[in-house]
Design goal:
single chain; mainly alpha; two-stranded antiparallel ribbon; disordered N terminus; transport; membrane; Xylose transport system permease protein XylH; sugar transport; transmembrane
């Protein structure tokens, strides 16, 4: 028997669910859902920034403000810049689903090659730089060949490379240290740009450069927001957007003020900033960058989509060799020489920076900026504990626990996301 609804019952149904009453609730629900989705999607990255600020504040209290002094902030930039350079390449390797255990040995070998040419043979300082870069590219091509075209897992290839290149470093140096480099070479990691000294002793040039950088960041973020709105993607409210820009500007300019009151703008910081900008564009706005994420996210789908997986993997390791060579130049410049033991444990610091900065263990997730924040977290913790006089053994325990918690948080997020589907 079929039940019919008479005309008299229709007004009751309409009055119970009147569009006039439902529309505000639907709009409110949609806005809340978008905000919740936006927060959930950015929880990992936002959490890293919050953790970084909290760690900086914690060590500022524990060291009675010494960790935030102008001189110490400058030293942090100089001492950990090469780890951040390595982290740029390492996060790309990890996003593609690989790992590189050889970068510390490559740092040592490229620095040794430069030292042999410049210190021992008396070649111009720039010849050592070119030779180190060429060595890094050759090493990257060597490892990329075995990974991409022979099919040996990157873990095995780079583990062999760690032993191979450390042995070559000992052979090149004859198991002795070489020093010193010419002053021009030393300025790469220890030089400063401080051409405009203000009346109170601060460097106005540093403040000017950072001010320009803040304006550029604000313009870039505004253009990104407009583009997302054009495609009807969820974004934060405009007051929240402005507050975020102002917060970033305040932190950056406070950092610039500390540098300006020390020795000015470190040259190595300029090198690092250029690398961050270049690789930020490469990973987000180029075909190669999208292919790297596609390979790490779903190898089978990437292959079926026409991605040349072997070529991408090959060039990833060539790029890692190049960045390891740059880090080797910076480290040898900083230490004013080449030592057989240079670069030990650098690979672990770079891997830790990538994972703490949000890279996923399974690949497909990670950013250059996140790796930089992860590296800075490690740098601030190490520097703060050193100021406090904490033993190296305890420092290793703390850094190991931080890395473990970062990866555990990543696994937890994945399980939660899988359970919600």
């Amino acid at each position: 028997m079929t039940r019919t609804v008479g005309p008299s019952s229709q007004p009751e149904a309409e009055s119970a669910t009147s569009p006039k009453d439902v529309a505000p609730a639907v709009a409110l629900h949609t806005g809340t859902s978008d905000l919740r989705a936006l927060f959930t999607r950015n929880l990992r990255t936002s959490g890293i920034y919050i953790a970084f600020v909290a760690i900086v504040a914690l060590f500022a209290v524990l060291t009675d403000g010494r960790s935030l002094s102008p001189g110490n902030i400058t030293n942090v930039v100089l001492q950990y810049s090469y780890i951040l350079i390595l982290a740029i390449g390492m996060v790309m390797i990890i996003v593609a689903g690989h790992i590189d255990l050889s970068v510390g040995s490559v740092v040592a070998l490229t620095g040794a090659v430069s030292a042999i040419l410049v210190i021992q043979q008396g070649q111009p300082w720039w010849v050592g730089i070119v030779a180190a870069l060429a060595t890094g590219l050759l090493i990257g091509a060597w490892q990329g060949f075995w990974v991409a075209y022979v099919g040996i897992p990157a873990f095995i290839v780079t583990l062999a490379g760690m032993l191979l290149f450390r042995g070559l470093t000992l052979e090149v140096l004859g198991n002795i240290s070489l020093s010193p480099f010419p002053s021009e070479y030393g300025r790469i990691a220890s030089g400063f740009l401080n051409g405009l000294i203000g009346g109170n002793g601060y460097d106005a040039f540093t403040l000017l450069i950072f001010g320009i950088a803040v304006v550029g960041y604000a313009v870039s973020q505004y253009r990104t927001r407009v583009a997302r709105l054009r495609y009807q993607q969820p974004v934060e409210s405009f007051p929240l957007f402005v507050a975020k820009i102002l917060a970033v500007a305040a932190v950056v300019m406070a950092f610039a003020w500390q540098l300006a009151n020390a020795r000015g703008l470190p040259i190595v910081l300029i090198i690092l900033a250029v690398l961050i900008m270049v690789y930020g564009v490469v990973t987000r706005r180029t075909v190669f960058g999208r292919q790297v994420y596609a390979i790490g996210g779903n190898l089978a789908a990437a292959t079926l989509s026409g991605v040349k997986v072997r070529a991408v993997n090959f060039w990833l390791f060539v790029n890692m060799g190049l960045l390891a060579a740059i880090a080797g130049i910076v480290f040898s410049s900083r230490s004013n020489g080449a030592q057989p033991s240079a670069g030990q444990m650098f690979e672990l610091d770079a891997i830790a920076a990538a994972f703490i900065g949000g890279a996923a263990v399974t690949g497909g997730v990670g950013t250059v900026v996140g790796a930089m924040v992860g590296g800075l977290i490690m740098a601030v913790m190490t520097n703060g504990m050193t100021i406090m006089g904490v033993d190296q053994s305890v420092q290793s325990v703390v850094k190991g626990l931080v890395l473990l918690l970062a990866v555990a948080f990543d696994v937890y997020n994945k399980r939660r996301a899988g359970a919600s589907r």
